[in-house]
C-alpha cells in the first residue's frame, strides 16, 4: 500500500459449529500483516453493520447445515435478503467476496453460501473476488488456505479500483466536455500497469512472508524410525522441507481460579435459544442381537410433564456430556486434578492483540473447571491447524515441536488429513503422542469448540403415544488404530448406553452396572423441528418411505400416526404407503419386526425388505440393498411419484445408501419416461424443489 493507513473491510461470518468463525478469525488476524483492518461481526449482529450503506468491500464466511440450510445465525439475514419487494439494484453499491463451507457427503453442498451468494447477485451486488466453496469431506483447508492467500491481492485491486472511481467522480466537473478519448485510454493503461505493479509487490510481500514463516530448523525433527510416516514421525520430503506454518494465534483468554463452594448452572443455560426440558428415560430396549455388528437401542422418554411438542419426522436435541474418564485424564495431564471442583472465572485477557476478543458465550460466568470440560468444550474435536500451531509453543521436546509444525504446515497438509483428520484424533490423543506438550487451560478454552448437542430423529407419534417420545440409535464405535491406540464410543451414544444399563439389565444390582447408576435417569432435551420432513398434509396422497437400519426411525412415527388417524377417521380416504427396509441379517438386526402389524391392519400397504449379509440358496439371489429392491418396483415408484403426485422419503446413511437410492430413482424416471439421464436428474431436482423428494440423512 502507498501509505501506512490500514484499509478497512467488513468481515461477516455465519457459523453453526464454530468452523466459519474460526476461519473468519484467521482472516482477521492475517489482515493486519497485509495492510488491512477487518471489522468482524457475526452475521446475526445486524445492529453492528449496515450493508445498505456499506462502502468498503465485504467478506463473508458462511457454513451450511446438514439439511442444506444456512446456519441458525444467518436466518434473519437470509430472510431479509429474500424479500421479493427489494429492488434489483438494492445492493448495487456493494462489492463482496464469499467463502462457503459445506460437506459433499450431503445433497445440498455449500447451499448456505450458494443461497446468500445468489440473493446478493440478484440484488445487484458485485463480486470483487471469486466465491470459494470448501468441502469438509476432503478437508476444508484445501480450498480455504489458497482462498485466503488470494484474498489480499483481490482486496488491494478492489480498493485501487474504488479509488480510481472516486477520483474520476471528483474530477468530472473540472474536466472539459471537449476532452478527447486519448487521455482516457492512457488513464486505463496506467490503471492496468498499477494493478500489475501491485501484483508484483504482493508476490514480493508474499515471498517475504514465506521466508519469515519458514524459519524452522529442519534439523529439529524426530529421529528416523522407519520409512513410513506416522502421527509422530515424518519422512522426506516433509521432514527436510522448510515449512510454511500459520502465524501464532494471539492469546486472549485469562482464567482465574476461585473457591470450591457453590452450584453449577443448570444445563438449560447452555442453549442459546428455545427451552430445555429435563425428562426421565422410562424404557430402553436393545433392538439388535448380541452378535450383530452394530448395537441399536430404542429409548422412551416421558414428556408428559412438559410442554415439549413434536410431529412425526421432527428431530430433537440431547445435551450430552463428555466421557467422565476422558475428562479426568485431561485434568491429570494438565496437572489440575485437584482443581476440578474449583469455580473458575473466564475473562478476556487485558492487552490482548486479538481484535474483537470476547468471552466465549458457551462458557457460563461461574462454574467449576470440571463442568467446563464436561459440558462446555468438545474435547473430542479434531484439532484445527491453528490449535496445532499454538501447541507448538507448549512443547519442550525439539523433535515433537518440529512434527507439530509439520502437521500444521502447508507442506504437511496431506499428513494432517491422513493422521489427524481421517483418524478422528483429538486433543487427548495428541497429548499422549507428544508427551512434552503441556498446554494451559486458557489455550484449551480458546481453541476447543463448543460441545454441541446431538440431534436424533423422533421415532414415535404423540397422537399414538401421548406424553411419550421414542428414538432409536446405533452405539457409535471408534476402534483402536495406530494413530489412536484406544477404542472409543460416540460421545452421546456411549453416554446414553451407560445411562440405560439398569433398564437393559434390570436383574443386575446397582453395583454391577457401569457407574452404579439407578434406573430413573433423566436427560435434558430441546426441540429441533423439521420444517419439511413430515407426512403429506392430504392423507389421500400416497407416499414411499426408504429407511434401512436406524433410518427406519422416523417412519415408525409416520406409521403410528397414520394408524391412529385411520382409527379416528374411518370416513377419510388414505393413500397407499410403501416401506423399503434393509439390514444385514434377518435374525440379528431386523429392528422392528412388528412392522408386520402395520401391514396386517392396513396402515402399511407394501413392505419390502432385504438382508445384505444373509446367504441365499435361491437360484436367483435376492436383492441385497434397498436401492436394488426399489428398482424391482420401478413402475409403482414412477406411478406414485408422477401420476399420483406422491411423496418419497429417504432416511439413513448418506454415502452408502441415500446416493444409491437417488441414483435408482433417476434410473427409474429415465426408463419409465423414456428420457435421458440428464432429463431424469432435472426431474428429480424438481421433485426436491417441490418438497416431494425429502431426505433426512447423515454421514
Automatic annotation (TrEMBL):
**What's the EC number here?**
1.16.1.8
Q: Which GO terms describe its biological process?
A: cobalamin metabolic process; folic acid metabolic process; homocysteine metabolic process; methionine biosynthetic process
Q: Any idea where the FAD-binding FR-type domain is? A: 274-536
Catalytic activity line of the entry: 2 cob(II)alamin + A + 2 H2O + 2 H(+) = 2 aquacob(III)alamin + AH2
| A cellular component term, taken from the record's GO annotations | cytosol
**Database matches in InterPro entries:** CysJ-like_FAD-binding (IPR003097), FAD-bd_FR_type (IPR017927), Flavdoxin-like (IPR001094), Flavodoxin/NO_synth (IPR008254), Flavoprot_Pyr_Nucl_cyt_Rdtase (IPR001709), Flavoprotein-like_sf (IPR029039), FNR_nucleotide-bd (IPR039261), NADPH_Cyt_P450_Rdtase_alpha (IPR023173)
List, alphabetically, the CDD domains matched: methionine_synthase_red (cd06203)
A Pfam entry, by short name: NAD_binding_1
**Name of this chain's protein:** Methionine synthase reductase
Q: Which organism is it from?
A: Centropus unirufus
Amino acid at each position: 500500500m502507498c501509505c501506512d493507513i490500514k484499509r478497512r473491510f467488513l468481515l461477516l461470518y455465519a457459523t453453526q459449529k464454530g468452523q466459519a468463525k474460526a476461519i473468519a478469525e484467521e482472516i482477521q488476524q492475517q489482515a493486519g500483516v497485509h495492510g488491512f483492518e477487518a471489522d468482524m461481526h457475526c452475521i446475526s449482529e445486524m445492529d453492528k453493520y449496515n450493508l445498505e450503506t456499506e462502502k468498503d468491500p465485504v467478506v463473508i464466511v458462511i457454513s451450511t447445515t446438514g439439511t442444506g440450510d444456512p446456519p441458525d445465525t444467518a436466518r434473519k439475514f437470509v430472510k431479509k435478503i429474500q424479500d421479493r419487494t427489494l429492488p434489483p439494484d438494492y445492493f448495487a453499491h456493494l462489492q463482496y467476496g464469499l467463502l462457503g463451507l459445506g460437506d459433499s457427503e450431503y445433497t445440498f453442498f455449500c447451499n448456505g453460501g450458494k443461497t446468500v451468494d445468489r440473493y446478493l447477485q440478484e440484488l445487484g451486488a458485485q463480486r470483487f473476488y471469486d466465491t470459494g466453496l470448501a468441502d469438509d469431506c476432503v478437508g476444508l483447508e484445501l480450498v480455504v488456505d489458497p482462498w485466503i492467500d488470494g484474498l489480499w491481492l483481490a482486496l488491494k485491486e478492489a480498493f485501487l479500483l474504488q479509488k480510481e472511481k472516486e477520483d474520476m467522480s471528483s474530477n468530472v466537473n473540472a474536466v472539459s466536455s471537449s476532452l478527447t478519448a486519448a487521455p482516457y485510454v492512457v488513464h486505463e493503461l496506467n490503471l492496468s500497469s498499477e494493478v500489475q505493479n501491485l501484483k508484483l509487490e504482493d508476490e514480493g510481500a508474499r515471498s517475504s512472508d514465506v521466508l519469515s514463516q519458514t524459519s524452522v530448523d529442519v534439523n529439529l525433527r524426530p529421529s528416523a524410525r522407519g520409512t513410513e510416516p506416522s502421527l509422530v514421525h515424518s519422512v522426506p520430503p516433509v521432514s527436510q522441507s522448510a515449512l510454511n506454518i500459520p502465524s501464532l494465534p494471539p492469546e486472549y483468554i485469562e482464567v482465574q481460579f476461585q473457591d470450591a463452594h457453590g452450584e453449577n448452572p443448570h444445563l438449560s443455560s447452555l442453549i442459546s435459544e428455545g427451552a430445555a426440558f429435563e425428562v426421565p428415560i422410562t424404557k430402553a430396549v436393545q433392538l439388535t442381537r448380541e452378535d450383530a455388528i452394530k448395537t441399536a437401542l430404542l429409548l422412551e422418554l416421558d414428556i408428559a410433564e412438559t410442554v415439549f411438542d413434536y410431529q412425526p419426522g421432527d428431530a430433537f436435541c440431547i445435551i450430552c456430556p463428555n466421557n467422565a474418564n476422558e475428562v479426568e485424564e485431561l485434568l491429570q495431564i494438565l496437572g489440575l486434578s485437584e482443581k476440578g471442583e474449583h469455580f473458575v472465572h473466564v475473562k478476556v485477557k487485558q492487552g490482548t492483540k486479538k481484535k474483537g476478543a470476547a468471552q466465549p458465550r458457551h462458557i457460563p460466568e461461574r462454574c467449576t473447571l470440571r463442568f467446563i470440560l464436561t459440558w462446555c468444550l468438545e474435547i473430542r474435536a479434531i484439532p484445527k491447524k491453528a490449535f496445532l500451531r499454538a501447541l507448538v509453543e507448549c512443547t519442550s521436546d525439539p523433535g515433537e515441536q518440529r512434527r507439530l509444525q509439520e502437521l500444521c504446515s502447508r507442506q504437511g497438509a496431506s499428513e494432517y488429513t491422513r493422521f489427524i483428520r481421517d483418524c478422528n484424533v483429538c486433543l487427548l490423543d495428541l497429548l499422549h503422542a507428544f508427551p512434552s506438550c503441556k498446554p494451559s487451560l486458557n489455550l484449551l478454552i480458546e481453541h476447543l469448540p463448543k460441545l454441541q448437542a446431538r440431534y436424533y430423529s423422533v421415532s414415535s407419534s404423540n397422537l399414538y403415544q401421548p406424553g411419550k417420545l421414542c428414538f432409536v440409535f446405533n452405539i457409535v464405535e471408534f476402534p483402536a488404530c495406530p494413530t489412536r491406540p484406544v477404542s472409543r464410543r460416540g460421545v452421546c451414544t456411549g453416554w446414553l448406553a451407560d445411562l440405560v444399563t439398569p433398564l437393559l439389565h434390570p436383574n443386575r444390582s446397582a453395583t454391577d452396572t457401569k457407574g452404579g447408576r439407578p434406573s430413573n435417569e433423566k436427560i435434558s432435551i430441546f426441540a429441533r423441528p423439521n420444517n419439511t420432513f413430515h407426512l403429506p398434509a392430504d392423507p389421500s396422497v400416497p407416499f414411499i418411505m426408504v429407511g434401512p437400519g436406524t433410518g427406519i426411525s422416523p417412519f415408525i412415527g409416520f406409521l403410528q400416526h397414520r394408524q391412529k388417524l385411520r382409527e379416528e377417521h374411518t370416513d377419510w380416504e388414505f393413500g397407499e404407503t410403501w416401506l423399503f427396509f434393509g439390514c444385514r441379517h434377518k435374525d440379528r438386526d431386523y429392528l422392528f419386526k412388528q412392522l408386520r402389524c402395520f401391514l396386517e391392519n392396513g396402515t402399511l400397504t407394501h413392505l419390502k425388505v432385504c438382508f445384505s449379509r444373509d446367504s441365499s440358496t435361491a437360484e436367483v439371489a435376492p436383492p441385497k440393498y434397498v436401492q436394488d429392491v426399489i428398482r424391482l418396483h420401478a413402475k409403482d415408484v414412477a406411478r406414485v411419484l408422477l401420476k399420483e403426485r406422491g411423496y418419497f422419503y429417504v432416511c439413513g446413511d448418506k454415502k452408502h445408501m441415500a446416493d444409491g437410492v437417488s441414483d435408482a430413482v433417476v434410473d427409474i424416471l429415465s426408463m419409465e419416461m423414456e428420457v435421458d439421464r440428464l432429463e431424469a436428474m432435472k426431474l428429480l431436482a424438481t421433485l426436491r424443489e417441490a418438497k416431494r423428494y425429502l431426505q433426512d440423512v447423515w454421514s
